[in-house]
Automatic annotation (TrEMBL), chain A:
Residue ranges crossing the lipid bilayer per the database entry: none
Short name of any one Pfam family annotated for the protein: FBA_3
Protein's name in the database: F-box domain-containing protein
UniProt-listed Gene3D superfamilies: 1.20.1280.50
Family annotation (SMART domains): FBOX
Domain of life: Eukaryota
Domain F-box: 1-45
Automatic annotation (TrEMBL), chain B:
Region named Disordered: 1-21
Gene3D superfamilies: Potassium Channel Kv1.1, Chain A (3.30.710.10)
Name of the featured protein: SKP1-like protein
InterPro entries the record matches: SKP1, SKP1-like, SKP1-like_dim_sf, SKP1/BTB/POZ_sf, Skp1_comp_dimer, Skp1_comp_POZ
Biological process annotations from GO: jasmonic acid mediated signaling pathway; protein ubiquitination; ubiquitin-dependent protein catabolic process
Length: 272, 186
């Protein structure tokens, strides 16, 4: 049977079967693991399946009274899938005990079945369907972060050019509060799936303005959008900072001039 | 019962088609002749459409040396049944582009059409559909084969597909340990 036909057949199988069928022979394994196949499989299942919710409750354990941000998250992380037909019950997809690897979990981001899972120690990329857990290496130390619970200002999305997922991490190089100036940087980690190029790389261009680190970026059409702003530095334009994942460039999208958009009331960004 | 009905319909369509002379004659690798509606052939097969448009259709039987008579009979049967069924939105969209078109489930009659086939007949038909550029039939046959594969062990799959295991024991063990959960339901 020709490879074309085998590919067409394998495209129609769920992930669990594909993982097992890697052991049929080497030719099948190379079909199943090639990026082109993975991309086609994703497109097919996205158009076929009903939209589903992926839920990963993160629970403080124990609860500490009076904390603004919980610092004692449970290290038992479970991913549940819920579809409309599932009669009010979500099914457990994957659970993992991180055994004390972190204390704080920050807001997770989801894209095409992948979950970006930032914590106060490491940043993980998790694929609940294949149960793959990728631990990203440490990025550049952010000089401000320890004071903020080691918060990681990360986002991720698909680079339309090379069809790879990229994790982007914003960081401060230096902050001078007296002069109200700062220098910032962005670093990128490309998820290859084959273990190569496993390191952060700084972008050639630096971000022109700081972003609200605690508001996760929104991914839309190959770009990440952050809200420009800082709690410490003034004289910043109001608007969105767009970071194109393909060429790793920045541009500013101004918000409509209105007194309604002050620092505290900038609406949360969202994409459909 | 379904088999008889299918063949009967094919016979009947063949007679009607001959009277209209709006058919093409196809010749299998073992020299058997089959008539198929020109309209259906052109609509369902990019290869036959190209041959009809290019005038390379032989009135005495266009040679299809790669396709045996059993598979060709199924192809012709499928085309004729298709000509009789109402074209649906699924077919129109899937004929635009196979890989990017939204996935459409096979229709009831298509499901029955492939359900009655043996393993060998199904595998020959998928090859024929691929060779003739019949996207919809390829979709239906691949869907059926994938259904058969669900939940099967790699050993069972190798047997059905007649594939030689080219992994060493050590390599297999390594992959199995990595993906233990996919092999043994936990």
């Amino acid at each position: 049977m020709s490879e074309d036909i085998v590919l067409e057949i394998l495209l129609r199988l769920p992930v669990e079967d594909l993982l097992r069928l890697q052991t049929v022979c080497k030719a099948w394994s190379s079909i199943i693991t090639q990026p082109r196949f993975i991309h086609m499989h994703l497109q097919r299942s996205a158009s076929k399946n009903k939209k589903c919710l992926l839920m990963a409750p993160h629970i403080p354990d124990p609860i500490v009274e009076g904390e603004i941000w919980p610092s004692t998250f449970s290290n038992n992380i479970s991913f549940y899938r819920w579809q409309q037909d599932d009669n009010d019950t979500a099914s457990l997809l994957f659970a993992k005990d991180f055994r004390g690897d972190f204390t704080s979990v920050f807001r997770m981001l989801h894209r095409d079945g992948l979950v970006l899972f930032p914590t106060d120690t490491k940043v993980y990329v998790i694929n609940p369907a294949t149960r793959d857990v990728l631990v990203l290496p440490d990025g550049r130390r952010d000089i401000l972060l320890p004071a903020y619970n080691n918060f990681q200002a990360v986002g991720f999305g698909l680079d339309h050019g090379n069809k790879r997922y990229k994790v982007a991490r914003f960081f401060y190089r230096a902050v001078n509060l007296r002069e109200q100036s700062c220098a910032m940087g962005m670093e990128v980690f490309t998820i290859c799936g084959d273990g190569n190029d496993a390191s952060w790389r700084e972008t050639l261009e630096d971000p022109p303005y700081p972003i609200y680190e605690f508001r996760p970026p929104v991914y839309f059409n190959g770009s990440l959008f952050w809200i420009i702003g800082s709690h410490d530095i003034r004289c910043i334009p109001k608007g969105l900072l767009r970071f194109r994942l393909e060429d790793e460039t920045f541009c500013v999208i101004p918000l409509p001039a209105s007194s309604a958009f002050d620092d505290e009331t900038i609406p949360n960004t969202g994409a459909r | 019962m379904e088999v008889d009905k299918g063949k009967g319909e094919a016979e009947e369509t063949r007679k009607v088609a001959e009277a209209d002379r709006d058919t093409v004659t196809l010749k299998s690798s073992d020299g058997k002749l089959f008539e198929v509606s020109k309209e259906a052939a052109a609509r369902l097969s990019t290869v036959l459409a190209g041959m009809i448009a290019g005038g390379s259709i032989d009135d005495n039987g266009t040679d299809l040396k790669q396709i045996g008579s059993e598979a060709l009979e199924n192809v012709v049967d499928y085309c004729n049944k298709h000509a009789n069924s109402i074209p649906s939105a699924a077919l129109i969209s899937s004929s635009i582009s196979f890989n990017t078109a939204p996935f459409k489930e096979p229709e009831e009659w298509e499901r029955k059409f492939v359900d009655r086939l043996s393993h060998d007949a199904l595998f020959d038909l998928v090859e024929a559909a691929n060779f003739l550029g019949m996207e919809r039939l390829l979709d239906v046959t691949c869907h059926k084969i994938s259904e058969m594969m669900k939940g099967k062990s790699p050993d069972q799959i190798r047997e059905v597909f007649n594939i030689k295991n080219d992994y060493t024991k050590e390599e297999l063990e390594e992959i199995r340990q990595e993906l233990a959960w996919a092999f043994y339901d936990d």
